[in-house]
Amino acid sequence: MGIGGRGAAAAIIMAWLTIFEGLFVHVANGGRLNYKEALTKSLIFLEAQRSGKLPPNNRVPWRGNSALNDGKEDNVDLVGGYYDAGDNVKYGLPMAFTISTLSWAALFYQRELESAGELDNTRDAIRWGTDYLLKANVKPNTLYVQVGDPNKDHECWVRPENMQTPRTLLKIDAGTPGTEIAAETAAAMASASMVFRAIDGPYATLLSAKAEELFKFGTEHVGTFDGECPFYCSFSGFNDELLWAAVWLYKATKNDKYHQYIMEEAAPANVAEFSWDLKYAGSQVLLAELFFRGQKEFQSYKEHADGFFCSTHPASPFHQVPITPGGMVHFRDGANSQYVTGTAFLFSVYSDLLARYSETVPCGQTKLTANQVSAFGKKQMDYLLGSNPQNRSYMVGFGVNPPTQPHHRGASVPPIAANTVVDCGMSFSEWLNPNKPNPNELTGAIVGGPDKNDKFQDLRTLSSFTEPVTYCNSLAVGALANLAWAQK
């Protein structure tokens, strides 16, 4: 068979696979996946992660006020923000990434979120984070980047409402720089400023100004901050965060100095991953959009964006990202679902851009179409929601046979009086170790997910399978909003 014949045969096979895939999703879940429901629940999980004094419209009945004295030891107000995962520590780096990716979703998929009735909830989730980040940067050239002692926290299995563990503070300043966290927080504030520009001008202006100050601080006081290690070590360095922040600041302010930074000072990179630690692919997609709009000086960034999709899509000759037999991208055990939702989000955004501008992704002699890019991104979300070899959902409270034992203190400890002193020594045997469902449903949490062989164990004690993280859900929001729109 000639080259043309093989291409035609491949096209026919791909078409049948697409049809079969749709049937599998239908059969595996007893009907269509309800993306609007998944979107709503994904945002409810973020509300379950809130720290501080909860608002009157709190939608998580088993959560209460917590950590109301955060910052007191340094005479600052650090009440609020988000717990990152199943513990009770507030980490600045992943929290800021949660906000920047949620803001991107709110900007790119505003119409889709509004149609689903979730735009206001998305904005509320962003503001819950930015209100805290503003408090963390109340002093010039100072940013509080962590609240809580993770080692002490991990010695007690207790819900945040009853924790007695130390609320130790870590900060970066001129003497102790942390370029990654300063830049990521700048990106969060810059992107959020665009979200609020039309509905709260003064707040948007404040966020933009703070973002500029933090970027300046991060570039003038350069250094890696290791204080959040071994829990959040920036293995990729800080150049990706600096580019990510510069791109968002350029979009938010249109200031030439950020354009100059992107063109002359930013470090280029070819990557196959998008995560809280590695932001290059996100920046490249954002700049590719500007390239498509006519800013041809960003061509190299557009080419790097293409490289990300060529590295990830299985139809590309340059494909290198590991994929499980069931079709899920798998980078590493432990919160692997964040890479799945990150892939789904970038593939969703890029496919929309390709369709809008009649473009394809060149991967050598192979050209990926907008439909191919869209289908692979959809497949990643569908996998997590139930279209997988286990025929089960990996989102709590959604779909068929969802997880019942997420590795999460608040969800696994029954509500008890706020003044109750918990015996930390007994807490693990009483609430972590029992093999039974959590007493509180952690609605919408996307758990860590299955291993490289599509195997999964719904056990609270196995955190690599069952621990959720905020940035997994923030990356899911945009993809789910787009899928919900298409499903209307």
Automatic annotation (TrEMBL):
Record-level Gene Ontology MF annotations: cellulase activity
Catalysed reactions, as listed in the record: Endohydrolysis of (1->4)-beta-D-glucosidic linkages in cellulose, lichenin and cereal beta-D-glucans
Residues covered by the Glycoside hydrolase family domain: 35-480
One BP annotation, GO: cellulose catabolic process
Top-level division of the source organism's lineage: Eukaryota
A Pfam family that the UniProt record links to this protein: Glyco_hydro_9
Alphabetical list of Gene3D superfamilies matching this protein: 1.50.10.10
Active site, per annotation: H407
InterPro entries: 6-hairpin_glycosidase_sf, 6hp_glycosidase-like_sf, Glyco_hydro_9, Glyco_hydro_9_His_AS
Record keywords: Carbohydrate metabolism, Cellulose degradation, Glycosidase, Hydrolase, Membrane, Polysaccharide degradation, Transmembrane, Transmembrane helix
Spans through the membrane: 7-28
Enzyme Commission code(s) on record: 3.2.1.4
Family to which this protein belongs: Belongs to the glycosyl hydrolase 9 (cellulase E) family.
Protein name: Endoglucanase
Natural source organism: Heracleum sosnowskyi
